[in-house]
Automatic annotation (TrEMBL):
Name of the protein in its database record: Geranylgeranylglyceryl phosphate synthase
Record's subcellular location: Cytoplasm
First-level EC class: transferase
Signal peptide limits: none
List of residues binding Mg(2+): 15, 42
Role description: Prenyltransferase that catalyzes the transfer of the geranylgeranyl moiety of geranylgeranyl diphosphate (GGPP) to the C3 hydroxyl of sn-glycerol-1-phosphate (G1P). This reaction is the first ether-bond-formation step in the biosynthesis of archaeal membrane lipids.
Keywords linked to the UniProt accession: Cytoplasm, Lipid biosynthesis, Lipid metabolism, Magnesium, Metal-binding, Phospholipid biosynthesis, Phospholipid metabolism, Transferase
Length: 235
């Protein structure tokens, strides 16, 4: 059976720590044509906040995944599963295996619902870089080596280049795409319009759009969906 994310070209990431724009509702996100929704953020993410977003999305028919930065204690029907970040370039091992180990030790996990993502955090000014003490001082060879490590040594199926808050370098993303054999490349960071979505969809398999939902709203997200579909990388 194909993995859930195999056909995702565009994903919208909802941050529980940020309000929606104007009169937008969570259910409106589906109207943009996005392929899936991820609920997750770095700061002030609690199970209660995530649950109220899941409740608001209960009638939505696209896949919904939670990217936990807290320890989930219950699994709701509406949820397709968890995408669990492993931050390869974190200085603090808590974000590589520590928090994961604790969650596994304290829970009875349904493994068919838990999918790791090999993160490489690349914007030193982002909340996630500060939180995980990520070493973002990496050249393209360093990034590519992390990606090989992720796929060939750790057997990861998802590699996530995380430039949260800023648009990354398409040449780095393209170099990573060339390195991968079968893992899927997620790109996130700074996508805010048709052009930026087109550009990154051209070099990544899946583009993730986050802050623009909260800052500019549903119509701006819709524009990024169009850019991502038109720019879709066919390799
Ligand atoms: C607790 C368990 C079970 C596992 C730990 C999971 C890990 C490693 C979490 C640490 C890495 C992390 C915080 C990942 C989340 C990535 C993410 C949602 C980044 C974007 O965060 P934003 O909150 O959008 O950042 P800004 O506030 O800068 O926009
Ligand atoms: O918020 P932006 O910059 O769109 O980044 C999206 C996502 O990669 C954040 O985890
Ligand atoms: Mg964000």
């Amino acid at each position: 059976m194909a993995v859930a994310w195999a056909q995702w070209n565009h994903v919208t990431k909802v941050d529980p720590d940020k309000a929606l724009h104007d009169e937008d509702s969570y259910a409106d996100i589906v109207d943009t044509g996005t392929d899936a929704i991820i609920v997750g953020g770095t700061t002030n993410v609690t199970e209660a906040r995530v649950q109220s977003i899941l409740d608001a999305l209960s009638a939505v028919e696209i896949p919904i995944f939670v990217e936990p930065t807290y320890r989930p204690s219950s699994h709701t029907e509406a949820l397709s599963g968890y995408l669990l970040p492993i931050v390869l370039n974190a200085d603090d091992t808590l974000w590589i295996t520590g928090a994961h180990h604790e969650w596994i030790r304290l829970s009875d996990l349904e493994w068919e619902s838990v999918h790791p993502e090999a993160y490489i955090v690349l914007n030193p000014a982002s909340a996630v870089a500060t939180y995980t003490q990520a070493d973002c001082d990496l050249d393209v060879d360093d990034v590519v080596a992390y990606v090989e490590l992720a796929e060939q040594i750790l057997g990861q199926q998802i590699v996530y280049l995380e430039y949260s808050g800023t648009l990354g370098d398409p040449d780095v993303v393209a170099a990573v795409q060339d390195t991968l054999s079968s893992a899927q490349l997620f790109y996130g960071g700074g996508i805010h319009d048709y052009e930026s979505a087109y550009r990154m969809a051209n070099v990544a398999d899946t583009v993730i759009v986050g802050d623009v939902l909260h800052e500019a709203g549903i119509e701006a997200v819709e524009e990024t969906v169009r850019g991502a579909k038109d720019g879709q990388n066919e390799s």
